[in-house]
Specification:
10 helices; D-Maltodextrin-Binding Protein, domain 2; alpha/beta; 296 residues; two-stranded antiparallel ribbon; 42% helix; single chain
């Protein structure tokens, strides 16, 4: 149904005067009359009683007036929703996040994103980097907070933070007496580390750094999240790798030590398909970069 005709009818119904209604609609009286006749012909209903001195609505016109107001409000809402969706101000993002990223950066990103775009919802999945790469290819998620570099070169990835790994170990371990450690000091220790699927390239990089220092880890115990790594270190199963001060959770029986010299770093990045970036995704990427810059 033509919006202009509805607006003309609404103006006439509220003004009950052709001249005032025509002025309100920014048209001549003959043009207004033509719009009204076209609407009545379309509906096959008389909406207005006309005379030289008087204008009034028919019973059908009175009922139709209520519906026209609803229709125009609905059309206004539809236009607003479409425009806000185009601008990325409304809708939904589906996001994958690794367990470390979920703890280190995700809460701050979400807080700022909700402040900027309160009408854009989020569906969040706890996923490894490998799972996120597959989900991005399948369009099951739109964004992924991962540990670069990625194995799939077809995906784009913006690195948002890089933070050094610290070592967590039992206070009964002889290395606990040292204030700082080197990677070579760990040659005879069992490693407690995140599963390779969380960040395959990062995992392999840690092993290659050890090999460059002249040793390969004796035994690798894989677990996640950070609380589990710390707990296993407290039980003296080995030494754990913990990235970021945010994950250095206090627990009796453990100490944290920084590494000197050659050391591995945890990288955090946002992965996405560069061919399909919505305005809301651009806002998310911008916020992620700012939050990542504050990671310690």
């Amino acid at each position: 149904m033509d919006r202009r005709r509805l607006e003309c009818f609404l103006a006439l119904a509220e003004e009950l005067h052709f001249h005032r209604a025509a002025v309100r609609c920014h048209m001549t009286q003959p043009a207004l009359s033509q719009q009204l006749r076209a609407l009545e012909a379309q509906l096959q209903v008389q909406l207005v009683y006309r005379s030289k001195r008087h204008v009034s609505l028919t019973r059908a016109g009175e009922v139709f007036l209520d519906e026209v107001r609803k229709i125009l409000r609905t059309m206004d809402v539809a236009v607003d929703v479409a425009r806000r969706t185009e601008k990325g101000e409304i809708g939904q993002l589906t996001i994958g996040v690794t367990a470390p990223a979920l703890y280190i950066v995700f809460p701050e990103i979400v807080r700022e994103f909700n402040r900027r775009l309160p009408d854009v919802g989020m569906v969040v999945h706890d996923m490894t980097t490998a799972e996120q790469e597959q989900a991005l290819r399948n369009r099951a998620i739109q964004l992924g907070i991962v540990h670069p570099p990625l194995e799939d070169a077809s995906l784009s990835c913006q690195t948002i933070a890089t933070t050094a790994f610290n070592i967590v170990l039992s206070d009964r371990n002889s290395l606990a007496r040292r204030r700082r450690l080197t990677l070579r000091d760990l040659a005879n220790e069992q490693f407690i580390i995140f599963p390779r699927t969380i960040g395959p390239q990062l995992y392999d990089h840690i092993i290659s750094l050890c090999q460059a220092e002249g040793f390969s880890p004796k035994v690798i115990l894989e677990t996640t999240p950070a609380q589990s790594i710390i707990a296993m270190a407290a039980a003296d199963f080995g030494i754990g790798f913990i990235a970021s001060e945010y994950q250095m959770l206090a627990r009796p029986g453990v100490v944290f030590r920084k590494l000197s010299g050659v050391m591995p770093y945890l990288s955090l990045g946002v992965a996405y398909d560069a061919a399909d970036v919505s305005p809301a995704m651009k806002v998310f990427l911008d916020i992620a970069q700012r939050v990542g810059a504050q990671v310690r």
